[in-house]
Amino acid sequence: MSEFKEVENMDGDQEISEISDLSKKGYQLLKENKTSEAAECFTRILAVDENNNYALVGMGDASRKRGGFREAVAYYQRCLEFHPGNNYALFGLADCYKALNQFHKAIEIWEQYLLHDDKNITVLTRIADAYRKVRDFKHSKTVYLRVLEMEEKNPYAIIGLGHLHYDFKEYRDALFYWEKMLQENKKSVDIRVLTSIGNYHRKLKTFADGVIYFEMALQREPYNFYALFGLADCYRGMNQQNNSLEYWNRILEQDPRNKVILTRAGDAYRHLGDYEKAVEYYERALNIEFDTYAVLGLAVVAKAQGHFKESNESLRRLIQQDLKNYRLYMELADCYLRMNERRLAIETLEEFQKIGIRNNSVVEMLEKIRA
To answer: Mind listing the pLDDT tens digit for each residue in 160-182?
Structure first.
């Protein structure tokens, strides 16, 4: 005989007792990430009480944990239809909308939640994050600051304010909040603070300072993608291609099919003059999916090896696909110069200018050729 009698045989007080037991068991299974077993418990409850709020929320939570956000939404909405204002259903529903990148809907639901619990810091920081995602600077900042009025050192609000200012290119204000976190507790500060400060220095091209923070992050998490990427990119900015390659390849050890990283590594090998290795990495990227910069890398290698016709044809095809990419025009103009076709080099750069985009690098190259 099973641990619980079949739900369909439940009646009266025994039915209430066994529903309660099933509900407790289901939520315990959810805590253990045993979502299928948990869903079985909640399904048995719904067989006799189709609008049971605990079971509907439980089914929503089980679906959400499995990544079935749309299915979860249906359960939470059904719960709210019969049990308006259920905090757990509101919270789960908002989190689903957030996961589905439907941030305006998430904000709407979280604000309903605040009608019942207007001092819930977790919900307030989620609302502020959602406003940040939809680039509503004013409302996002207001809610973050409201959290800090309630909890002066709340890390999520401080980090969020940093990201908010960073997103709006207010880099020094962003740094103020991140450094505030760092000063509070340097040894156990959230690793995102370290990578964010590193990215601040990448943005300002103070790469040597960025290296310090990314290395601190790597000491915490040796395989942290953002720290590895940041270090590689800082060394690239410092033109230390050997060092950058170490970190590009460390990322590829974990993610060998990352075409962006393959292309970056190919660029590093190309700058070092190792054309064979560069071609290998560009082709690995293209075997995954078409990538403009991998094709560009191959064209630049061909040009460096004196295969001007091949490079020229490849660059012209790329321009047809990406008319606003100034670098393609500059590489093609350089190719024409190497072919002693000065007039065609000038016409190529003028063709870019006719699009109506002003680019200082293009202007400088054109002036240099005409001089």
So the answer is: 999 999 999 999 999 999 998 88
Terminal alpha carbon distance of the chain: 94
- Comparing 185 with 24, which gets the higher pLDDT? 24
Average pLDDT, the chain: 92
pTM above 0.85, yes or no: no
Which secondary-structure segment (H or E) carries 244? helix 241-254
Give every CB contact of residue 167 below 8 A, 6+ residues apart in sequence: 132, 135
Q: Average the pLDDT over each of 62-76, 181-195, 243-257 and give the range with the smallest value.
A: 181-195
Q: Is the separation of the CB atoms in 200 and 178 below 8 Å? A: yes
Q: How many CB atoms lie within 10 A of CB 347?
A: 12
Q: Is the dihedral of CA 293, 299, 301, 303 positive or negative?
A: negative
Closest C-alpha among 237, 180, 236, 177 to residue 205: 237
Q: What residues contact 111, with CB distance under 8 A and at least 6 apart?
A: 127
- Give the count of beta carbons closer than 10 Å to the beta carbon of residue 16: 12
pLDDT band at 317 (very low <50, low <70, confident <90, very high): very high
Q: Which DSSP string corresponds to 87-133?
A: HHHHHHHHHHHHHTT-HHHHHHHHHHHHTT-TT-HHHHHHHHHHHHH
Residue 90: closest CA among 65, 71, 115, 121: 115
